[in-house]
Amino acid sequence: MAIYTNLYLLVFLPVVLIIYQLVPKKARWGVLLAASYALYISFSKYLVLLLMATSAFTWGIGLWLDKIGTECKEKQAECTDRKQKSEVKKEFQKKRVFALRVGVLVLLGILFYVNYLNFVIENMNLFLGKLGAQLPMARVMFPMGISFYTLEAVGYIADVYWERYPAEKHLGKLALFLSFFPQIMEGPIARYPDTSDALFAGEPLNMANLNEGFLRIIWGLFKKMVVSDRLSYLTTHLFGNYKDYHGSFIILAAIAYTVQLYLEFSGSIDIVIGSGKMFGVTLPENFNQPFSAQSAAEFWRRWHMSLGNWFKNYVFYPITVSPMVKNWNKTARKKYGKYWAMVGTSAMALFPVWVATGIWHGAGWKYLFYGMYYFVILLFGVAMEPIKEKNYAKIGLDPNVWWLKTLRILKTWVIIFTGELFFNAVDLKAGFHMFFSIFGNFHISSIWKYWPDAITTGDVWAICVGSVIVWIVGFLKEHGVDVRGKILNARTPYKWSVYYLIIFAILLFGAYGTGYQPVDLIYAGF
Amino acid sequence: MTHDSGKSIVKLILFGGITLLLLVIASAMMKPTKWFDEKLIQDRNARTVQMMEQPDNTIDVLNLGDSLSTAGFSPMELWRDQGYTSFNIGADGMRMNEAYYAVVEACEKQSPKYLMIESLVLFRYAMGQDLQMLLSQPLYHRFAFLKYHNIWKSLVEEKGLMTYYRGYTINENVWEYDGEEDYLDLDINDPNSKMSISAFNGLIFDRIKRFCDERGIEIIIYSMPSAKNYNQVRIDAMQSFADEKGVTYIDLNERSDELGIDWDLDTNDGGDHMNLNGARKVVKYFGNYFREKLSLTDHRGDPGYSDWDEELVEYDKLVKEMDGKSYLDIYTEKKNKEWDEKYKKEDTTNNNDVKK
User: Fold this and answer.
1) What does the alpha-carbon distance between residue A95 and residue A68 come to, in Å, rounded to a whole number?
2) Mean pLDDT of successive 10-residue stretches along chain A, which has 526 residues
3) Residues of B in contact with A499 (CB under 8 A)
4) Phi (first) and psi of residue A205, to 5 degrees
5) Which of A436, A495, A514 has the most B C-beta neighbours within 10 Å, making it the best mutation to test the interface with B?
6) Which of A64, A395, A430, B232 is close enough to A425 for a disulfide, judged by CB 3.0 to 4.6 Å?
7) Which of A7, A459, A508 minimises the CB distance to B132?
8) All structural domains of chain B
9) CA angle centred on A343, ends A339 and A349, rounded to 5°
């Protein structure tokens, strides 16, 4: 039961809302947990046991870390001098590191087994095949949302280790944080303090939250059903038959897929955030007008923000402040100067982040390439930044002049479209084939000459008009006009008119009905 | 209940009520044959809409199922052979939920004597999709606005080429089946359908049967000759199901010699669906079957059914014009012709590059 289906929107969510409101405040978290597991079972059946086991394991590791910390403090209290205290701390720190390692390794080990083991076996077999040997492929079931809840669990353990907050004593509360039903499929990846209190508070439903959540949900449905799902017919055809197309069609495929992915992912996140809001839970935002970004780095601060923040908090920063990187920075400054030390340090911290970002999306060389593609671009950006600044100053050019901003945005679009071309290609080889075929036999006219039947004139109209509406709303938000806030603060007749307008636009122009194959959520597969 | 929460509940009810009212109004406007030409509907609902157009109580036999049923049964041929009136109310990839409402809608103005159900529809099952349909099909049935919402596309798009003759579209394409002769012994690997009938589909079948029993409609389950979709396992499963439900089951695969099915000539896609040749043989079999049962009236010569004779002339004309082709062939030819005319100059300069 995916979150965009009528079963979820017309039955599951309203029923959970009603039960939630009817039960006593203290039991409401239980309603949310039961609903989360019920929804999970509808996808992954008995694999819910893995989610439960992960929750219990994460909870146990948290308590273990807490216990070590408490014991350490007690022992330190018994110490008479500083040296003794420091030795006790060292001794317990070893235990804490051990607990952290056990927690992280087990969680990532499960993720590796589910997501990557067969990829490793497949590649090992390429070599072993030459020796006449073959490893059997593992029979692995994919538990829905494992990439999302594993990162949340690892983040929780790391935060408890760093004593950013104490370990959660209540297993149910942590289990609810890891399994909250709107976000289990596609995120956003939250940190424990972001949502745990609101999830557990059991505040009664109120009209302000219901209104905000409802508007968010129908807006998300508009993005997905009117634009994204229609685009998927085109992109599935073009990427699936990539050898038949080149030149302008490949560019069209890259642009269409990027728009499809954005509207689908941001649309489903709107449904997720809207669902959470109805229960009074504010989930973290995942998008902030990513196509207004003026650089690849800025793009990643605006696109899938919760994933970017996770890698920043739990990979980038820890590496940056690690003794190895600090030592290297110190030595490099002396040996190669400040500039190269900065570039080298950035490379050392960015490389693991982008390897991880790439393979987090899936087991495949194309995903690794996707990560490396952004690593190279971002590192190049870091290396060029001081040079650019110098040059702007030299020629007396204001870097914030409008046409330069526009050029930077367009350059970022080219980077994004190229990245998504590889991301959605059948495999890395197909990605390169498509990329190089852009430059052969480029005729813009072939677009309408060989327009595929997969998408009709009506679909094109719906896509164009829908995209323009979404773009206008985003443009206004980027320039400080909060359209959503204005609607929510309007008088009821105006507010409801907007609701009805969006609802009937979806019902009339949405891609649904008997015979339509529902388009699965792209990120739910990661 | 506080004053505020009472107010909120009233607001929620009011909002839901207005939504419902708007849907009812929009559905009334969207009802085909009232406000717009039903020919604007060219998708899977085209057959339902044309069914609604039939004069009251003039259809003897309804033929239901997925594409196997619509490709392998031509009502115009049954009219020619026996003078019985029939209509294909199936659709590509039809599932049981949709099938139930197709029967309900068809019987709004008709009192057929027989409902023929092509059996593959009973094997189609995927829990998630079918549960979704359990909710959506009643909504599509109640609200025409939801069912025909795609009608706006007909306003901006070229009209479809297909002509439906009482739910049948002519396909004369021949693509022979080159697999094993004894296909009933083979395994079937079809991701879209199962090898047994799910309890879910059984329940919906019971619902259809109750509906038919109340109206005196006899159900006949049959399996269309299809080398790609049937084997002994499915036929046995279907036979037990029909026995359990107390309905007639006719398997045409085991009777394919009796029908005279020639797998080199009677299929349009390598043994999956029947073409016009195959459909004629299937219809001939059922024509004789109904004649022997003496339960249907030959309407030929009845002035109330003159539209069938007129349509048969058009049908025969199109059969001749199509000259061994399918609509896909005709569509491709039309597109190629358009491109050739539009881009003749450009093509000569581009050295007829086959890539797009």
Assistant:
1) 7
2) 89 96 95 96 91 97 94 85 85 93 96 91 88 85 91 96 94 96 92 93 93 97 95 91 84 95 96 97 95 95 95 94 90 90 92 94 92 96 88 84 92 96 94 88 68 81 95 94 95 95 95 76 64
3) 15
4) -65, 145
5) A514
6) A430
7) A7
8) 32-335 (3.40.50.1110)
9) 145
